[in-house]
Design goal:
By secondary structure, this protein is α/β, with parallel strands linked by helices. It contains 14 helices and 17 strands. The protein folds into 3 domains: about 5-85, Orthogonal Bundle (Arc Repressor Mutant, subunit A), CATH 1.10.10; about 90-215, no CATH class; about 220-390, 3-Layer(aba) Sandwich (Dna Topoisomerase Vi A Subunit, Chain: A, domain 2), CATH 3.40.1360.10. The chain is about 40% helix and about 15% strand. Helix 6 (about 140-155) packs across helix 8 (about 180-195). The longest helix is centred in the middle third of the chain and has 18 residues, at about 140-155.
């Protein structure tokens, strides 16, 4: 067993407390003198003199021990409270409790905040980070709570439109770059504060934020089909892009045969150009997981068309999650979503061995239209990017 050794007595004593705070239930804690590191006999004497002062107070005990056949000094922690007093150091548990006391009074936070704050306090008491926030960093923690609360306000606001990271940060009274630095912590704490608003599992941070309409640069709503704005028919372009805050003005100039949402940009462009020249379909680009503002428009347009609705995405774990996300949203409105070019036969014929991919969702969605693909992905280990396939009409 490798011993922890020092030539600086102050660092040795502080390390004993650090290790006690990390694991207060450890039966015995020792520090050792690093005999080879003393620059002189006088330096070793000063080392021992400093430790003797702590020993006289009953905080530690200086002992002799043998390590690797050599005799050395071993310092055993005896009375942790005495050592705290000797070093004029506040116990980490008291410090964490003091630092976090005001957080219980932050306005407009749910009841779940108390449990989250207590978990952070328990971690900080052991001098370890929690939710990605370093011990005692109350400034960052306050910003994370403000940003998480801001995400929830967006989730509850049907009129919320897409917004970039920096504008969102300023909107909740934090620095413009705050979300850039704390995004992972914000997503983690939001899911604990508001469990009813958890994003789909296994999303990365940017994907999760995008579902709230918060992205590094908000995507326009892009679509292809017979489009009108406030009753005015648009010229017949392959596809159109609309500012997210004006997407609610989009209408169809005439009926369509199908609606198709598409996960990836290249496939969206190809389908619009190669398969929708007649504009008999409504094709919507989701940009991966659709932002909530985009998803609202997808739902609205699917309802208004009253026709068959399909989704085309990657044949992998991410593609399954995106399909299920859109499927659930449409099912809640009585609309059934069907997979397009996403089935076990295509995966078996064209798929390649998956490497370094995110894991499959724990459930394949019993009764979901994508369940058969989920099972095939699990059984074969194959994956397939949708860009590998040429577009074709659904149905």
């Amino acid at each position: 067993m490798k011993h922890i050794s020092f030539a600086d007595a102050g660092r040795l004593l502080a390390n004993l407390l650090d290790r006690y705070e990390a694991k207060p239930d450890v039966a015995a804690l020792f520090g050792y003198a690093n005999e080879a590191a003393f620059s002189s006999v006088e330096a070793r004497d000063r080392f021992i003199e400093t430790l003797r002062k702590a020993e006289k107070l009953g905080a530690v005990k200086i002992e002799t021990a043998r390590t690797s056949g050599d005799t050395t000094l071993r310092i055993r922690l005896v009375d942790v409270d005495a050592l705290y007093r000797h070093l004029a150091r506040m116990p980490s548990c008291h410090k964490a409790k003091t630092l976090l006391s005001d957080f219980y009074e932050l306005p407009n936070l749910p009841e779940t905040a108390r449990e989250v704050i207590e978990e952070i306090g328990a971690a900080w008491s052991r001098n370890v980070r929690k939710f990605g926030i370093m011990p005692n960093d109350t400034a960052s923690l306050k910003d994370v709570f403000l940003l998480a609360r801001g995400l929830q306000q967006r989730a509850n606001d049907p009129a919320a439109v897409a917004i970039d990271f920096r504008s969102f940060s300023r909107s909740v009274n934090t620095g413009s770059k705050t979300l850039d630095h704390l995004a992972t912590s914000v997503v983690a704490i939001h899911s604990r504060l508001y469990p009813g608003q958890r994003t789909p599992e296994n999303l990365d941070t940017d994907e999760a934020l995008a579902t709230f309409g918060v992205s590094r640069m908000p995507q326009p709503l892009q679509l292809s089909g017979p489009i009108a704005i406030d009753g005015v028919m648009l010229p017949p372009l392959s596809y159109y892009g609309f500012p997210p805050d004006q997407a609610a003005t989009i209408e169809l100039s005439h009926a369509v045969d199908y609606v198709l949402t598409i996960e990836n940009y290249t496939s969206f462009i190809r389908h619009a150009r190669e398969c929708n020249a007649s504009r008999k379909g409504l094709i919507l680009y989701t940009a991966g997981f659709p932002a909530r503002s985009h998803l609202r428009q997808i739902i609205r347009l699917c309802l208004e068309t009253g026709t068959a609705c399909y989704h085309w995405g990657d044949l992998d774990a991410g593609g399954v999650r995106i399909f299920r996300h859109i499927e659930r949203a449409l099912q809640a409105q009585g609309v059934q979503l069907q997979p397009h070019l996403m089935d076990a036969a295509i995966l078996t014929q064209y798929g390649v061995a998956g490497t370094g991919r995110s894991p499959l969702p724990s459930q394949g969605g019993s009764g979901s239209a994508i369940e058969h693909l989920w099972c095939a992905l699990r059984e074969t280990g194959l994956v397939l990017e949708q860009e590998s396939l040429s577009p074709c009409l659904p149905g």
